[in-house]
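ok, trying the design again with the full structure, not the truncated one.
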């Protein structure tokens, strides 16, 4: 009996790989994210805000697979949202020389990490698909639009073996939504250019696509095909050239519309 009791005591100290419970975060996200932008006032007043933050701190996510990737994508987006909501007067993700993604350290998943470390360490070890960037929002207007729902809902259970398959549709849709924003893709015939958002600048995330063999001209040409086939053709032929639009660091706050009677 003593041996059995000792073994049970040791088992209780063993690390757990139980799935992270982000139910509080899902509730907060569903009521505060609208078409990729955030109602930060609603986040700040939400009854589940502290429970969500604590869930991210206490979580012990799986090491591999779709559930692990989903957790770290969700953690990135939720921590960005919670950080900005805590500062109601914040107008930029990079304010007063300090950025929420590089300078702030979070307790998350049993580790102390910045958002940059979540992106470049935790997420990068789980997938090399450059489209993952279109699911991550650092709280700025020029970054990716937030997904319609937290990714842990899409990824399914931790028993899912591969990380890529549950995310393929979500990444493709995230990329489509990003290119659909005219600030991220526009044709300027007078200048002979196709302007794209700075997120895809070669020394930013554009190089991630080229490293896996997808040239920016092809990526942008494919995005242009549905709305302006001639521009897509001219870009591929070199008649139009790619140029970069400046990044908009303003917070991705919901811009309210008021209807007058």
């Amino acid at each position: 009996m003593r041996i059995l009791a000792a073994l049970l005591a040791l088992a209780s100290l063993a690390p757990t790989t139980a799935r992270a419970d982000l139910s509080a975060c899902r509730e907060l996200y569903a009521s505060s994210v609208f078409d990729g932008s955030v109602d930060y006032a609603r986040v700040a007043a939400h009854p589940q805000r502290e429970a969500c933050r604590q869930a991210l701190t206490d979580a012990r996510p799986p090491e591999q697979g779709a559930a692990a990737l989903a957790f770290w994508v969700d953690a990135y987006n939720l921590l960005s949202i919670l950080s900005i909501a805590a500062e109601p007067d914040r107008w930029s993700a990079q304010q007063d020389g300090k950025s929420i993604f590089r300078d702030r350290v979070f307790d998350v998943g049993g580790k102390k990490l910045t958002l940059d470390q979540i992106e470049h360490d935790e997420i990068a070890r789980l997938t090399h698909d450059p489209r993952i960037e279109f699911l991550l929002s650092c709280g700025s207007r020029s970054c990716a639009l937030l997904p319609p729902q937290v990714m842990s809902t899409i990824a399914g259970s931790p028993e899912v073996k591969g990380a890529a398959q549950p995310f393929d549709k979500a990444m493709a849709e995230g990329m489509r939504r990003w290119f659909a924003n005219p600030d991220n893709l526009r044709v300027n015939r007078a200048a002979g250019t196709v302007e794209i958002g700075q997120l895809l600048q070669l020394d930013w995330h554009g190089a991630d696509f080229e490293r896996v063999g997808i040239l920016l001209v092809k990526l942008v040409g494919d995005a242009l095909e549905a709305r302006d086939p001639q521009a897509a053709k001219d870009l591929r032929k070199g008649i139009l050239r790619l140029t970069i639009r400046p990044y908009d660091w303003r917070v991705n706050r919901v811009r309210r519309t008021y209807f007058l009677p």
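Keeping the full-length input from now on. The CA atoms of residues 62 and 68 lie 5 Å apart.
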